[in-house]
Amino acid sequence: MSKAATVSKRSKAEQPIHIHVVDADRSFRRTLESLVTRASGSAFRLSYSRTLSRAAAKISKNGIDACLIDQRLASGAPPSQIDQLKDALGSRPVVILTDVEPSPDTKNSDVWRIASNWLNKRELTADLAARALRYVIDVNATRRALMQVIDELEQRVQTRTEQLRERNEELERFAFLVAHDLQAPLKTVLAQCQHWKCETEACSQQGSVDDICSHFARQAIYNVERMQCLLERLLEFARVGKDGLDCVWVSLEDVVRAVIEELDTVIEQAGASIRLHQLPIVYCDYWLMVDVFENLLNNALKFRGAASLAIHIEAITRADEWEIRIRDNGLGVDAKAASDLFTLFKRGENASQRPGHGIGLATCRKIVEHHGGRIWAEQNPGGGAAFCFTLCRPMGPRHDGDSP
Question: Could you tell me which CATH class the domain 247-402 is placed in?
Fold first, then answer.
């Protein structure tokens, strides 16, 4: 470090602490000057104003380290002057000068709301004045340092969140492009496999092709169709939220009944019973909400246990949100891995023996979050799993005519 820089740093550190005093009593100002000088020599520098408005102007222009304000002077000032002084002070500490110990009612006044401490004028000594001022300034410096650290941490979190958001958007764009661009060649492969299957079956009837070739043809078609299904689901996932939300007032009971009708065959084959408790009319995108219930019900049907599957769909209405719960008595969920179930391509521990691609629950999460809600899974107290999500409840009148 250069000599000039060292001198500059030392002179800055040795500068006196600047205290601005807002008090119209000249006698007290002389007394305070004498006390502070006697206690700390040149460690403090005092400046003065007779009114709050003048103090605000001087502080804005010159800058200070702390401010002493006479309570009687501040009590008679209009709120606008106190606000002006507060803006000028920023985060600098304020000490109220008073003749008596303040009461709780007094501390509720406007000027006390910006105070860091108070001093009794009648009991003021040189040592007390110096110690009180140093204490207030040190505490305030610590608070500012802590706030700076908090601001830096929040900035880091914000930066990291933005980076994750950008990466997620890149991943979704990639998924969309892959899913979209592979559709055409996959259809061609599927058509060729189906043609191959027809040819092998025709030749097999004539005895020129064995059953192994027919088996391979069927397996090829099965795998291509499975890949086609995966790409379609991935494309659906990537499209969520791209065109915004078309929200209207929707009867959740109508949504669920439409999904049950669509899944009627699967529900019948599973021997499942679905009970709808009282469901609210909510503000959401109707078709996206159909996707949510279709995925959640399909999940319950896939992960059923040995007992007859019973599914309950219910809702809890709160002041600012609706909580929807789909409970079942199936295999349940692992509490430690529950949050991972809503990650793209992540599947539960029992999933390897069940059909699926790990996209349905991720799609549910994306749809619910686009509605401003949350989604999670937990163990059902009576056994099985409970999949829950929330929807924001808008303030204002509901228009039933908007329902589908």
Answer: alpha beta
